[in-house]
Design brief:
The complex is a heterotrimer of chains A (136), B (141) and C (102).
Chain A: H1 9-33, E1 43-44, H2 51-58, E2 83-84, H3 99-132
Antiparallel strand pairs in A: 1-2
Helix pairs in contact in A: 1-2, 1-3
Chain B: H1 2-29, E1 45-52, E2 68-76, E3 82-85, E4 97-100, H2 105-138
Antiparallel strand pairs in B: 1-2, 3-4
Helix pairs in contact in B: 1-2
Chain C: H1 33-60, H2 66-99
Helix pairs in contact in C: 1-2
The chains are: A mainly alpha (136), B alpha+beta (141), C mainly alpha (102).
Chain lengths: 136, 141, 102
């Protein structure tokens, strides 16, 4: 009976999900920084992801978005596509960033991140306890 | 590293809003000033925001979706100065009119509040990103 | 040491057979430590799977319940530790028995 702890699919997916949440955090920060930029449109990346998406994103390898960046220095990109958010109203300068919506997304993202890091820690603790408690 | 990018993006927002605030305060301070007849009175100024890519740190990949902001320039409001009839004012022209800056203090205060709110929002973004970094390190504990 | 089979001395006198005590996880007779350990392992495994499922549901948006996820995680962790303790106790018991002078 195999108790797969260290090479666990769920653990891999969680790692990928944390990348996704980091990416979302970046995008929300970008929206907020540009709240007064004329013509700027709110962007987002999907907050939820299936196991397949997460595992696929993890193995997508390194790639650069700019030619001057050397591949060796780049972190793997989570692979989720950022999209423009529909249904927001624009102001006179054609900017459609909604402060309250972005603030909500901030706390949502941050909270999910805290939760998943806690759960990852829990998993590792289980492994550690099996190593420590194994003494007879 | 993408959390560092989030922090930089937030920081660029902080800088931009702060500069905007400085300009707005300049408008308010000069709202009641006048110039001798013939000279241009103070005209309202505003900042221009443009999206800008944050500086790369640690070789972080710049995703096209993530952009910081910067002040690309200062513009002067070309609106007409406010004419007031004050014949006894030292700066009155031959018809007795004094030209005051085209600054509406109420409007400027609203802008100041908006800049403050945006500043605080950017601060939240930076703090949240920092908190997420902390949580990541806690996995090791 | 071979078990001594005590049979009836007298045809009419029935003496019950004494079974030598055996310990350890290899016992097939159905009673005792082996079964307990197997149970503990399968429970731990099952709860582990459930906990993983809950986490996946949270990430995919299927389940918004924070408490379900957290509780499932705790259950899995505790049952795993329980299993470790069961194993430890069995090994201890085995060693103690092995130390016995027969």
């Amino acid at each position: 009976m195999k108790l797969d702890f260290i090479s666990n699919q769920t653990l891999d997916a969680m790692e990928s999900y944390l990348s996704r949440l980091s990416q979302r955090q970046q995008i929300v920060a970008s929206n907020l920084a540009n709240i007064d930029t004329p013509g700027y449109k709110t962007r987002d990346v999907s907050f939820h992801a299936t196991m397949q998406e997460l595992l696929a994103a993890r193995s997508s390898g390194l790639h650069t978005t700019r030619p001057e960046h050397h591949p060796g220095l780049i972190q793997p990109i989570p692979g989720a596509a950022a999209f423009e958010v529909q249904g927001l109203s624009s102001r006179a300068d054609l900017n459609n960033v909604d402060l309250d919506r972005e603030m909500l997304k901030l706390s949502e993202t941050s909270f999910a991140y805290s939760l998943i890091t806690q759960l990852v820690r829990g998993k590792f603790r289980t492994i550690a306890s099996s190593i420590n408690e194994g003494r007879v | 590293m993408s959390l560092m990018t989030a922090i930089e993006v937030g920081a660029s927002g902080l800088t931009a809003q702060r500069r905007r605030l400085e300009v707005l305060v300049g408008n308010l301070v000069n709202a009641g000033t006048t110039q001798p007849a013939g000279a241009e009175p103070y005209r309202r100024k505003d900042v221009v925001f443009t999206a800008a890519s944050p500086e790369a740190t640690f070789g972080a990949a710049l995703e096209d979706a993530v952009q910081g902001v910067e002040i690309s320039g200062l513009v002067t409001d070309r609106g007409d100065p406010v004419k007031k009839h004050e014949p006894n004012h030292p700066h009155a022209d031959k018809d007795g009119y004094v030209y005051y800056p085209n600054v509406n203090p109420m409007e400027e205060m609203v802008n100041v509040l908006s800049a403050t709110r945006s500043y605080e929002a950017n601060l939240q973004a930076v703090n949240m990103a920092k908190e997420m970094q902390q949580k990541t390190l806690e996995i090791l504990r | 040491m071979e078990p001594i089979n005590i049979g009836p001395i007298h045809p009419n006198l029935q003496v019950p057979e004494i079974r030598t005590p055996r310990s350890g996880a290899g016992e097939k007779s159905g009673s005792g430590f082996g079964e307990i350990l197997k149970d503990a392992i399968s429970t731990a495994n099952e709860l582990q799977k459930q906990s993983d499922q809950q986490i996946q549901k949270f990430m995919s948006g299927e389940s918004q319940d924070l408490h379900t996820t957290v509780i499932a995680m705790q259950k899995a962790d505790l049952s795993f530790q329980m299993m470790m303790q069961v194993r430890n106790k069995i090994v201890q018991a085995y060693q103690e028995i092995m130390r016995m002078q027969v």
